[in-house]
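LOG
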Amino acid sequence: MPPAATSKSRAALSAVELYSLLFGLFLGLAIVKFGNPVILDQIIFNPHTFSDFLHDSWPLHWANWLLVAIVLAGAALAITTKPRWPATRWLWALPVIWFIWQILSAAQSPHHDLTSVTIWQYAGCIACYFLGALVISRGRGNQLLLIGVLVAFAFCLIRAVDQKLFEFPAEKQFLQENQRTGWTNVPPALLEELRRDKILIRTNDIETLNPAIMAKYEKGRVQGTLVYPNALAGIALLLFPAAIVIVWQTTRSLRRIVCIAAISLVIFLGLAGLFWSGSKSGWLIALAVGVFWLYRLNWPRQFKWMMVIALLIGGLAVFGLRFHNYFAKGATSVAARFDYWHVAARVSLQHPAFGTGPGTFQRPYAQMKRPDAEMARLVHNDYLEQFSDSGFIGGLSYLAWLALLLWTLCRRTWANGDWLQFSIFAGLLGWFTQGLIEFSLFVPALAWTAFTLAGCLLAHSANQVDKPKPPV
């Protein structure tokens, strides 16, 4: 290769690596600041003070404009580096078909406020997937991307632990004490903020604490920097496996005590966040992913099965102790989800072509739910939501895309012996499984991170699929 061409190639690679680092920092910012569902954007206030800017979530449309700039820069890099698609054509055709159908469905929707923000979210998912596959996966892009993502993940987990041990108990005590004193010692600005956030409500001309807020403190569930506890479980399922492998690979050449301490800290933060999130499904999915992980290890068969049985017994015992009160009370959230799913199935059959419009489930649900059922804005099932919101073509194209994607990634990462790649796949498998009972597709912090990692892994695993290594 001529010297000029070599210099140009190195410059392009350097630009890709810098872009990957910046994109990872953007996803980290999303984990810290954009952890709400997009359909709630209209009720997220702009920060008014530096304290609000630092501690509160940011309006979600800010993330969209940031992503537009990042996508344009990524498109310019893709044009200059001319990457090849790293898998079967169906893995770019199916997401394109799905997104086109979302736009057609949106054109039929009468609820433009909900549909427009959802289309922005879906566009972000598609952009992250293709940028991951065509740009970020080149060179050391994957590793550089993970810097910002995992730092933000660690911050989210530390925030969750702080909420459990310090923040929530202190807030509960503060509210109860000022309730007894009639709020006379609370500054007017803080009192107005409590009213704005509906922590204080007026009942029979008396200002009192919102029972729902106090119930949250009683349950003690934490959410870190995300919208609610099950979203924290989602980010733990997605990133915890990769965090363990990254820390192990980074510290294994250091003194053994340092390596053990670092891995122990990561395991504590991940399991504590998952446990204190109070997510039943999150714990069970993590247990299933753990079994899947153990099964891949190249250990003696008998010892491997002993470890699997021990993991299942220990994990289910913790599950039983943690949630026995919940099941004793009748597992109300499970019953509620069945009600959401039943209505979503009815809506899908009534609107088989285009659904009711992306992000609009709350509209038909308000009309079709049982009188005693609680209200819901989303189906709490990302896959069924596609059928309800955009019809059968939208739902089937999304299912086909993800099924083919996960199968391709499983086949590649199982064979190539790269533990970081396998850990990313394990996280994706757990996260997409949680989509059966949650709405993570609508949360930028979760969905954009997941689809970026999926695109990166699709391309990076293609580089080794023809040279498999045995598992260690």
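LOG (cont.) second protein
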Amino acid sequence: MKRAPPSEKLLYAADVAAALKDLGAAGALPKWGAALTNPPLTRRSVQLGELRQVGIKSPESVARPTVRNDLAFLVTVVGGSSVLAVLAGALLPGDLSGFGAYLAGGISIATLAIGSTAPGLLSFIIDKFSRVFPDYRERLRRHEAAHFLCGYLLGMPVTGYSLDIGAAHTDFAETELKARLIEGFLDEEKTAKYAVVAMAGVAGEGRWSEEVVGQNADLQDLQRILNRCRTAGDRKLSDGDQQNFSRWAVWTAARLLRDNPAEYEALQGAMESGASIADCIRAIEGAKSVATN
């Protein structure tokens, strides 16, 4: 599947899912899909206080897009270019002082121009800049491992992952999700599973830190899923329903991480070392976990 061109990946995804399902049924992978039945995945209203009970340190920051990295980058660029301009004007001789100050001041203008014409390039630069934060690597690892583990416990096969700067992701062989989104609808049961996996990274960060930095892309994925959901009466989710759905998804993902601490830590270690998908699964299945609060 990894070597197949994008147009053929869906053909192999079904085989990956079927193989894991057979291994689970044979008892070789007892944790595969265990969260679908123990306890059953049932959506309900969740209050902010319940998010704190499952370890989310700042429930108010959940589902609120963050601009920490963007702001820090812009402040650094503007502040740094301003200092350079002042130093150039004061230290360089003759006409060079004016030219140097002008050139240094143009850095901020160039940054704004890149953001306006090539936002993807600016996002890449900001991702690289984010490495200066001492918590960046750990946030990244906890975030992607949470997606991986929750997806595994909910029976969604992982086919690839990356912790590379600017390219962090977790890929799922979930052909049904792609097909349903193309058709334009998802039932509530499928939406619940996909929503939990989408918000798992938020839960992973939120249980570790009061600030959830890497949730912007996850919120976009979640919104795309919720927009396709149809209730039993073929009704779209209202704004209030979507908010409740989002909160429940974070709560459920956080509960899975809380109840499987050894699996979560073992998986993080495997992913940090660049382990294969098979070795990551061995890390999950081999962990001896005792649920903690």
